[in-house]
Structures are given as C-alpha cells and as structure tokens.
Amino acid sequence: MRSPWLATPALAVCLALSACGSGQGAGAGPPTEMGATPVTTPTDPEPAAADSESATPAAPRSTPASVPTRTPKAPAGPSKPPPVGAATLTGTVQAGVEPGCLLLDGYLLVGGPRAVLTPGASVLVTGKIQPDLVTICQQGIPFLVETASRQG
Fold first, then answer.
1. Are 104 and 40 within 8 A, CB to CB?
2. Which of these, 122, 145, 142, lies nearest to 132 by C-alpha position?
3. How far is CA 51 from the centre of its chain?
C-alpha cells in the first residue's frame, strides 16, 4: 500500500526532469559539452549585383546581434576618484557594520590611533588608499592611516 504513494511522486519528478532535457528546438545545433546549444548570428547576403558579368560572388555580411545598452550605476563609496599616493581625508568618523570597523567619506580606516578615531569624531587623517587590501569590514575602500588628529 505504501509503494504507490512513493512511486507516484518519484514518477512525476522523473517526467518533469525528462521534459526539461528534451527541449531542443527545431533547427538547433547539437548541444556543447556543457549542454548549451550554440548561438549563431544570422547573416544577410549582399544584394545581387546588377552586373551579370561579375565573376566574384558577394561575400556574406554578418549583422551583429543587438546588445541593449545600459547606463552603469555609480559604485557605492566615495564620490571622487581616489588620489594616487598619499592622501588627506577630513570628516566625521562613522561606525561600520562590523565591530571595530570605522568609515570616513566612504573609506575604511585601517590602523591609526583608536583614541582619536572614534565614531562621531571630526578628524583629519593622512595615509594611503589600498584598494586591494582584504578586510572583514564588508564596506568602504581601505585607507591605511598614517596620522590622525581631531578637528574643531
């Protein structure tokens, strides 16, 4: 009595999966290694030449597939491009999403005196931008602090 209850859902799953695999459309080429059907771009032949004495046939011209254009979104972070070499930042320190992570104007403050760099403090920091530095803070462009002082 139990086997029909187990066999029915198993059969339904097998039928659904086999229907997914048999969706090769008419005129589609053979599947590639990964199971995808290759995509080809249609070609438009040149119009036949009016001169019948031309011995050279016109070469087919391929038309590029239309690609939708999209305006890229501005990345999160600072609104100005990072300067090269040493840089100076001023502003109010903000707490990051992870404990111990501090941000200033979209930059992640790495190092520096923690007595000066506290959330809410108005500071002036100098250092270097290190965009390839890996951190656990999940936000901001890493900025290696060399000096930090409170403002106002």
1. no
2. 142
3. 52
Amino acid in position 135: T
Q: E-strand spans in the chain?
A: 43-44, 61-62, 86-92, 94-95, 102-104, 107-110, 122-129, 141-150
Specify the 3-state DSSP secondary structure of 86: strand
Amino acid at 123: V
Task: Using alpha carbons, select from 124, 102, 121 the residue that is nearest to residue 111.
Answer: 102
Specify the residue for token string 């959330």.
119
pLDDT tens for 12-59 read: 666 566 665 555 554 455 555 555 555 555 565 555 544 545 455 555
Q: What is residue 53's three-state secondary structure?
A: coil
Could you give the C-alpha distances from 57 to 42, 43, 62, in angstroms and in order?
19, 15, 16
- CB proximity list for 103: less than 8 A, separation 6 or greater: 93, 94, 95, 96, 109, 139, 140
pTM: 0.47
